[in-house]
Structure prediction request, 422 residues.
Amino acid sequence: MDQLAITGGARLAGEIRVSGAKNAALPALAAALLADGPVTLANVPHLNDVTTMIALLGRMGVTVTVHDGLRIEVDPNSLEDCRAPYELVKTMRASILVLGPLLARHGRAEVSLPGGCAIGARPVDLHVEGLRALGARIEIEDGYIHAEAGRLHGCELLLDKVTVTGTENLMMAAALAEGETVIENAAREPEVCDLAAFLNSMGARISGAGSDRIVIRGVPRLQGTQYRVLPDRIEAGTFLVAAAMTGGRVRLREARAQDLGAILAKLREAGAAIDSGPDWVALDMGGRRPQAVDISTAPFPGFATDMQAQFMALDAIARGVGTISENVFENRFMHAPELQRMGADIRLEGHTAVVRGVERLRGAPVMATDLRASAGLVLAGLVAEGETVVDRIYHIDRGYECIEEKLRQLGAQIRRLARGSR
Ligand code: EPZ
Prediction:
């Protein structure tokens, strides 16, 4: 199991390119199953989760070709099997995203239940209920979702909770349904908008993506297309927080300020000067120590839960006290005890953390528990005295492309240790 060794103290400076968004690439790869011709995706990041999704498509017999390392071509007509097995689904919950497309295009699907994960139970009941409302016959037994359908029929769907992949699964299924489907209380994340645009480029008729009411007029078929995945707003936010924590100055190419509203507002509150253009965002902290900020996570356009751990690391070394409320997942503070081992002053009270900033953290061996928690620990290592070794960084490789290379480009002292080497 690889580790990342970070020696704190460097002030980050320079420019990097933001990779394509993991949480847009994964639904797009699943959506390719809806087409009756080849689909080519550009700007897909090299991430373990993307590799897993490609392996899942391959397991179903779908031909996936990677061109010059950047473009991925999916030929959905080679599909032989509508089964997503547990051994793949358990490593990546987003595998559930093949359920809607398989049902809509092939009328059957056998997808393993994803099971819980470190940050919470994360059920998929809203996915299943919505597909049943669209006409699917679904039984859950032996840990699998067994689904069948003739042609799905459009209907009014009201989601009890805002669910990103739930909205995406239902939007994909409705794209080929008979008649019109309305999704009320839909997720508004930029990745949902990107998926709608991708589906429309295949001939779907989707409007309202980005609002909480999405209207899908079903069509009989969807054709192959070429599409470029949008930049990863969480990767961008993570690097902006790293620069803010180290008092640095960075410029991110291919970052979209319109996807980062709540995050940029909190960085300005922390004392950062932010500037942006159509496809770039710049942050200048001017060598200052950040001011603590209060965070309360919510669905987009609220503050992203995927940025909570990174801001806890910022508050840990900020001036003053910040409170962090995690309102989306039930167990997403696992980075707190690891930060405390580095000297952070954090008091947990239910789903709220009270963080009193300290002047300096101390480097220590820490353990990653989930994707974004591990990012928070890396950021803490950038400002800690001495060396921090983050273990189990397979978590971080799921969602960040070449994180140590990009941080080194900005002046960080960070290196990857192969298992057992020192
Ligand atoms: C997506 O997960 C993201 N993953 C997550 O990113 C992100 O943290 C999350 O949205 C929230 O923004 C992908 O897009 C692949 P939800 P998702 O369904 O769709 C409850 C990362 O770091 N819920 O919006 O699984 C659920 O338990 C990952 O890249 C139900 O109760 O999240 C949670 O409390 C981590 N029943 C809340 O809704 C359901 O059927 C929001 O979950 C579905 C969800």
The chain has 14 helices and 24 strands. The pocket of EPZ is lined by residues 22-23, 26, 94, 120, 122-127, 161, 163-166, 305-306, 328-329, 371-372, 399 (CB under 6 Å).
